[in-house]
Write a structure and sequence with these properties.
496 residues; 62% helix; two-stranded parallel sheet; elongated; transmembrane; 26 helices
Length: 496
């Protein structure tokens, strides 16, 4: 559909269905109103229609108006089927000529192929054309908008991965007058508005400022201690510790627990070792300093995008819980280790819709790319079948595909060519998840083994080889010379 594919000869077969749909639409027009008059009304909107496309359409107004009118008739007839599935009787009946293409139950391959085509970005038709044609058919703008909204909601329930976002609030904030086309309607329902994103971001900013205020007080208290004062306090604490140890028996656990770790950690040598083995605290300080330098407009760093997989998070103690809301419901509770994610339904049409929504967002949105950031988040936590299985068992992923592997391929196959922007509330979730994950002792031990044991196997192999050569040489030396006599060892005394 649309003017971009009008001259493709392999699509001429579909023109017969569009022509039949236009004839049926003309039969439902009020008496005295001809289809040519409908085309004439579309021609009056031609400047607005041409402005909806990103390049010049090399078609005259008459050809473009007739083409869009026929495409709109076919699209309206198909949308009526979606409204019937949603329980809305919108002049609904499927003709014999369309019965093999559209299916109320969505079980025919042509039906799914048509669904995928009408959500593609290059196939979009301005929504003002559909509104105008329904207004002429029903002789009422109010009834036309009500019918069109029922059609679009039915299509949304059929296609959208967030099928639960059909409450009154989500639909009330969407005005058909503000929707450029069908895909724009999907985007406005699925993705939270900039006002909602700013509200959540302001809440996160207030929480961070409150924590920063407490952190600055602690930092000012710590800066009062000079290097000489640190050694003085360490001596006093050591003397106090020794004096208390003499007063009664103490267990080894109490001895270790009562050591002045805050003072020991301030020593230069210990501080360097701490930065080497536990770099997370220093990275968090640097990230906070970078945020204050006005870097909110820059793309997120790799550390801000990277996140452990579902399997890794589950092994570290993270619990996943589903929410029947949209992207704004994504939260992480560090106290309980609970990761809240919206329920997402995936079928054969989901990949096309997700790709086109991401592409459309990158074209029209000047602010944060919320949906692209969500897709990148799901791409990060889902890496293989085990991750999909875990989310499916938790009720977060409703899998209508053949296997969990297809779900993993769907998310991993999403293109990373789209630029990413910082989305404060999602960035905060990823930061909290990484801090919780990196703070687990299992993860710290694993990273230590990987960095200093597995990464140093060449050096360890060399040392083991040298030790083996030394022992072999010592054995050969002792076989020739009397080692006990040289080292003054009395064999008789050692045997007794």
């Amino acid at each position: 559909m649309g003017p971009y594919h009008y001259w493709r000869p392999e699509l001429y077969e579909m023109e017969r269905y569009k022509l039949n749909a236009a004839k049926r639409f003309a039969k439902h027009l009020p008496k005295g109103l001809e289809f040519q008059e409908v085309v004439g009304e579309i021609k009056h909107c031609m400047p607005k229609i041409r402005a909806s496309y990103d390049k010049y359409l090399n078609l005259n107004d008459d050809t473009l108006a007739w083409m869009l009118a026929m495409d709109a008739c076919f699209l309206l007839e198909f949308l009526r089927v979606c409204a019937l599935k949603g329980g809305k009787d919108v002049l609904g009946r499927v003709t014999n000529r369309m019965s093999h293409m559209v299916d109320v139950f969505g079980r025919k391959s042509a039906h799914n192929a048509t669904l995928r085509d009408i959500v593609m970005l290059e196939n979009q038709i301005p929504l003002c054309i559909l509104r105008k044609m329904l207004e002429l058919e029903l002789s009422s703008q109010y009834l036309a908008d009500e019918m069109l909204l029922a059609m679009l909601v039915g299509l949304y329930k059929d296609l959208s991965p967030f099928a639960y976002i059909t409450d009154d609030y989500s639909l009330a904030k969407v005005r058909l007058q503000d929707c450029a086309h069908l895909l724009d309607f999907f985007y406005q329902v699925m993705v939270p508005s900039q006002v909602d994103v700013d509200y959540v971001s302001c809440q996160i900013t207030r929480d961070l400022e409150r924590k920063d205020g407490l952190g600055q007080e602690n930092q000012t208290n710590n800066t009062l201690c000079s290097s000489n004062n640190i050694f003085t306090r360490l001596a006093k604490q050591t003397w106090k510790f020794v004096s208390n140890a003499k007063s009664g028996p103490m267990s080894i656990v109490n001895v270790i627990a009562n050591l002045p770790w805050d003072i020991i950690g301030s020593l230069p040598l210990v501080r360097n070792l701490k930065q080497r083995f536990f770099p997370d605290a220093q990275e968090n300080k640097k990230s906070d300093e970078n945020n204050t330098d006005g870097t909110s407009e820059r793309p997120p760093l790799f550390e801000e995008i990277n996140i452990p997989t579902v399997y890794q998070l589950t092994k570290s103690g993270v619990r996943f819980l589903p929410t029947k809301s949209g992207i704004l419901s994504i939260t992480f509770d560090p106290a309980t280790g609970t990761f809240h994610l919206p329920v997402v339904r995936l079928d054969v049409n989901s990949q096309v819709l997700l790709r086109n929504v991401v592409a459309y967002e990158s074209c029209v949105t000047c602010g944060p790319l919320v949906f692209a950031r969500y897709v990148e988040l799901m791409n990060g936590i889902i890496d293989c079948e085990k991750d999909c299985k875990e989310l499916r068992e938790k009720g977060i992923v409703l899998n209508h595909l053949k296997s969990d592997g297809e779900v993993a391929n769907l998310w991993n196959g999403m293109s990373r060519s789209i630029r990413l922007t910082k989305v404060p509330f999602l960035d905060k979730v990823i930061e909290d998840v990484n801090r919780f994950y990196n703070g687990r002792w299992k993860v710290k031990v694993g990273k230590f083994m990987k960095s200093y044991i597995y990464g140093s196997w060449k050096i360890l192999t060399l040392l083991a080889t040298i030790l083996l050569l030394v022992l072999s040489g010592l054995e050969a030396f002792c076989s020739v010379y009397s080692c006990p006599r040289l080292f003054h060892i009395d064999i008789a005394d050692s045997t007794t």
